[in-house]
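hiii so um. not sure if this is the right channel but i have a protein structure encoded as tokens and i wanna go backwards to a sequence. like what aa goes where. can anyone help
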């Protein structure tokens, strides 16, 4: 029987265990949206994870949607991330970077020259974002023209290259949580005609073209992807999530990706009943690479799902924020630290790098 604590090879990346640190937005980037010294320390503390998925990082200035999120498009950002990857590797860990474009979940004050956010649509989301003026409603987007799509794909390709240049072991394409890729995927948002709107194949075209560009650039064995079929966050569900995400996974299968990461149910929400209204196992059966599950996992459920072959890897979010030595705590069945929920987004070391590990 496979154990959560067993090593695993995912594509080109060898992991010492199957416990993954989920990508977690913390809004602590320093000037220039650079990962600074505190961020180096934060990830170093968590390097015993089998894999760290470093927080969502904008692929271009237009891809940003919140204050103080890190980017992966400038030389300073690449240099900042290099400090992080060196620290994690020196501590024996593996780390990939989540590549992010927020689409319409942004505000003009965060974008170059006060530009409108871009999306599949010109309909505004019913959502807020965090800016230098605090929480504000997101701005009305501009629908991307079809002739702008190649430039967007180029931004993803370059960001993947930058991530490798920054020392990451690979990248995870953020195709979840109702950001840009999902704003194209879902018929609840995408109201386009032409090659990127209408049918499921057309709505999935952007995602697949981005995967093609990234895997050509850095190799499929260093590329993963994250999906969230049943998350509503800033947009309603698709009219037929099973058909949509079934198609996506069937099309992803031949690429030979390192892993597919699925959020079960509502992101950050309870595991039921949303998680039960979707057949995740059908997607799993269609995907040949490593299968990573996430959302509110307990120790017991993670151990059970890996032993039963329901998952190859389990990603932990809140538990990894509060407990830097989560792998040891799970292994020895020791209690976790309590999460300081008011210190998740923004601020300094408090609630970031000051959670204690147990003494050896
Ligand atoms: C929380 C706050 C801001 C962004 C996601 C990148 O949900 C995020 C995010 C989460 O994927």
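sure thing!! here u go:
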């Amino acid at each position: 029987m496979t154990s959560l604590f067993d090593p695993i090879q995912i594509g080109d990346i060898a992991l010492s265990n199957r416990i993954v640190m989920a990508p977690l937005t913390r809004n602590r980037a320093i000037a220039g949206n650079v990962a600074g010294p505190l961020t180096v320390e934060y990830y170093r503390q968590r390097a015993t994870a089998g894999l760290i998925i470093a927080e969502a990082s904008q692929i271009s200035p237009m891809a940003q949607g919140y204050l103080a999120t890190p980017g992966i498009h400038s030389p300073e950002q690449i240099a900042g991330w290099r400090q992080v990857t060196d620290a994690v590797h020196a501590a024996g860990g593996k780390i990939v970077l989540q590549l992010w474009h927020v689409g319409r979940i942004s505000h003009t004050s965060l974008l170059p020259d006060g530009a409108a956010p871009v999306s599949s649509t010109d309909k505004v989301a019913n959502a807020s974002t965090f800016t230098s003026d605090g929480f504000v409603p997101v701005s009305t987007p501009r629908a991307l023209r079809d002739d702008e799509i190649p430039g967007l794909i180029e931004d993803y390709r370059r960001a993947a290259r930058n991530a490798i240049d920054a020392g990451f072991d690979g990248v995870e394409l953020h195709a979840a949580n109702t950001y840009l890729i999902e704003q194209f995927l879902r018929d609840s948002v995408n109201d386009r005609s032409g090659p990127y709107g209408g049918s499921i194949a057309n709505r999935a075209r952007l995602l697949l073209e981005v995967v093609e560009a990234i895997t050509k650039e850095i190799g499929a064995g260093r590329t993963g992807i994250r999906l969230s079929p049943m998350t509503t966050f800033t947009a309603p569900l698709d009219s037929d999530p099973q058909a949509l995400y079934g198609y996506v996974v069937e099309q992803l299968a031949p690429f030979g990706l390192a892993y597919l990461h699925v959020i079960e149910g509502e992101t950050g929400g309870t595991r039921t009943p949303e998680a039960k209204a979707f057949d995740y196992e059908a997607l799993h059966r269609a995907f040949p690479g490593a299968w990573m599950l996430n959302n509110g996992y307990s120790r017991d459920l993670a151990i059970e799902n890996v032993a039963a072959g329901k998952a190859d890897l389990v990603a932990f979010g809140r538990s990894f924020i509060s407990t830097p030595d989560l792998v040891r705590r799970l292994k020895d069945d020791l209690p976790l630290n309590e999460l300081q929920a008011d210190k998740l987004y923004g601020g300094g070391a408090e609630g970031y790098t000051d959670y204690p590990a147990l003494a050896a």
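oh and The longest strand covers residues 51-58.
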